[in-house]
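Second attempt. The first submission of DUF6894 domain-containing protein had a stray character pasted in from the spreadsheet, which I only caught after the job came back as garbage. Lesson logged: always re-copy from the clean sequence file. Corrected sequence (82 aa) follows.
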Amino acid sequence: MPADRYRFHCTDGRHAVFDRVGKRVADPLLIWGHAERVAREVMRSCGGRLDWAGWIVDVHDSKGRHVGTLDFKDVRDERQAA
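This time the job returned cleanly.
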């Protein structure tokens, strides 16, 4: 079975960072690890200047179906994720 392409959009309901490319993921269990990496990258790219409490990673499959969400507040520190 080929890998499905998932998109990992980030939003707080007012602002958004859209994933226009997506990522192919062969094992659906790996989606959440990638969602955490996406959240950490968004936070890092903004230099920690925002309150991330209301932000989520909103995951969709290649057909646009909602797969689930990950709250930024639940994202583990990179040192813990290793």
